[in-house]
Design goal:
The protein is α+β, with helices and mostly antiparallel strands and about 350 residues long. The chain has two domains: about 5-265, Jelly Rolls, CATH 2.60.120; about 275-348. About 15% of the residues lie in helices and about 35% in strands. It contains five helices and 20 strands. It has helices at about 1-15, 215-220, 295-305, 310-315, 325-340, and strands at about 35, 40-45, 55-60, 60-65, 70-75, 80-85, 90-100, 105-115, 120-125, 130-135, 150, 160-165, 170-175, 180-185, 200-210, 235-245, 250-255, 265, 280-285, 345. The strands form four sheets. Strands 2, 4, 5, 7, 12, 13, 14 and 16 form an eight-stranded antiparallel sheet that branches. Strands 3-6-15-8-9-10-11 form a seven-stranded antiparallel sheet, with helices on one face. Strand 13 (about 170-175) and strand 14 form a beta hairpin. It is globular and about 50 Å long. The termini are far apart. Bound molecules: 2-acetamido-2-deoxy-beta-D-glucopyranose (NAG) (4 copies). One 2-acetamido-2-deoxy-beta-D-glucopyranose binds next to strand 11. One 2-acetamido-2-deoxy-beta-D-glucopyranose (NAG) binds near residues 191 and 195.
């Protein structure tokens, strides 16, 4: 019974845990911007400054140290949240994490989609020998049977390899190469697949206080009590993250309002071919970094780059060293142009 309650609480708190949020849920609204695809595989070493066009520090800040990036809570109710500007549509996320220790504190690495599908790793700070896995589909957090607990030794003082494998058939969670949990598309808790995570997801990394006076009692209990700020700072360290997108291409859009994976449209780089350079073409420009900026110069640059995705060129990877200057120029252009861009832009 106790175990059931704990799992129930874990499920309850889980959606809060991910700091669940969607700027535009395409299953509820029309005209949401497309999701910029990672479209490749890349490893980010978190001891080097992360490119802000690729990773958005939405809340708080991180501190780069020799073995990674520190996500630290120092002040009452401070929190940290780093989100990828790219999405993956099925794939692999391998994260190397040292959790933050302390009752009420939660370290997390989460995949989350625009319609609030969610795949979680959560380390709850009162227990440094444990990690929790969880999932949500289409924002449905009404049931309490999805969370699971797994043993992991010294999770606060040693990096471990926490890997999620995700495709349309199954979800797998691995700790240090050991498979600790499998969820199939129509397993218990997925509502016959409806609540199986299946839409393009961003990666979110955060360290946040769940044990706050404002939180629901269930959340506080799940978190192991209220945070004792006399013990601050509370630090989570991320060493590196390897992320693989199982699809290639530029962006993902929802073809309808079902939120089903079959409805997701993948636009390929070839779409650039449709744009005549002489014609006046109204092109949608998203308000986020995930949006695609079309200015004539960039189009030409893109075409020159054999129509590969911009993210690929923005990746800090030695293979693309030659392109880096071009990519940097593009990023600068993008930043300068963003603020005066109201949504549509004429390309002539
Ligand atoms: C970064 O995150 C913040 C907070 O969620 C958001 O307001 C902002 O638009 C994001 N920036 C980009 C470039 O996506
Ligand atoms: C910590 O978590 C592990 C694994 O989930 C569990 O076996 C152990 O009892 C927990 N310890 C405490 C103090 O809750
Ligand atoms: C991390 O674990 C995953 C899953 O077992 C594995 O594929 C990957 O190779 C591991 N990474 C390293 C660096 O060992
Ligand atoms: C949410 O999930 C529960 C349990 O699977 C289910 O009974 C309920 O109908 C779902 N709600 C929606 C809106 O799908």
């Amino acid at each position: 019974m106790k175990a059931f309650n704990l799992i129930a609480l874990a499920a309850l708190a889980g959606s809060a845990a991910a700091q669940t949020h969607s700027d535009c849920d395409p299953t509820k609204r029309d005209g949401c911007p497309a999701d910029s695809a990672l479209g490749t595989e890349h490893t980010w070493y978190f001891n080097e400054t992360l490119d802000s066009t690729i990773w958005n520090m939405s809340t708080g800040s991180i501190n780069y140290v020799d073995d990674g990036a520190e996500f630290t809570i120092e002040a009452v109710n401070a929190s940290t949240l780093l989100q990828s500007n790219f999405y993956i549509f099925f794939g692999v996320v391998e994260s190397w994490v040292k959790m933050a220790k302390g009752a009420g504190i939660v370290s997390s690495v989460v995949l989350e989609s625009d319609d609030l599908d969610e795949i979680d790793w959560e380390w709850v700070g009162y227990n440094t020998s444990s990690v929790q896995t969880n999932f949500f589909g289409k924002g449905n957090d009404s049931t309490f049977d999805r969370g699971a607990f797994h043993n992991v030794a010294n999770a606060d003082s040693e990096f471990h390899n926490y890997t999620t494998y995700w495709d349309q058939y199954k979800l797998e969670w691995y700790i240090d190469n050991e498979l600790v949990r499998t969820l199939k598309y129509d397993d218990k808790g997925t509502l016959g697949g409806k609540n199986y995570p299946q839409t393009p997801c961003r990666v979110k990394v955060s360290n946040w206080p769940a044990g706050t006076k404002e939180a629901a009692q269930g959340t506080v209990d799940w978190a192991g009590g209220l945070v004792n700020y006399d013990d601050a700072p509370f630090t989570m360290t991320v060493g590196k993250v390897r992320i693989q997108d199982f699809h290639t291409g530029k962006e993902y859009t929802y073809g309808d309002k079902t939120g089903d994976w079959q409805s997701i449209k993948k636009s390929l780089a070839e779409k650039w071919d449709d744009l005549g350079t002489g014609a006046h073409v109204g092109v949608y420009v998203g308000a986020s970094a995930a949006g695609v900026l079309l200015i004539a110069g960039f189009m030409l640059w893109c075409l020159r780059q054999r129509r590969k995705g911009r993210l690929e060129y923005a990746l800090d990877d030695a293979r693309y060293a030659n392109e880096r200057t071009d990519a940097q120029n593009f990023q600068n252009d993008w930043k300068q142009t963003e603020w005066r861009n109201s949504g549509y832009r004429q390309v002539s």
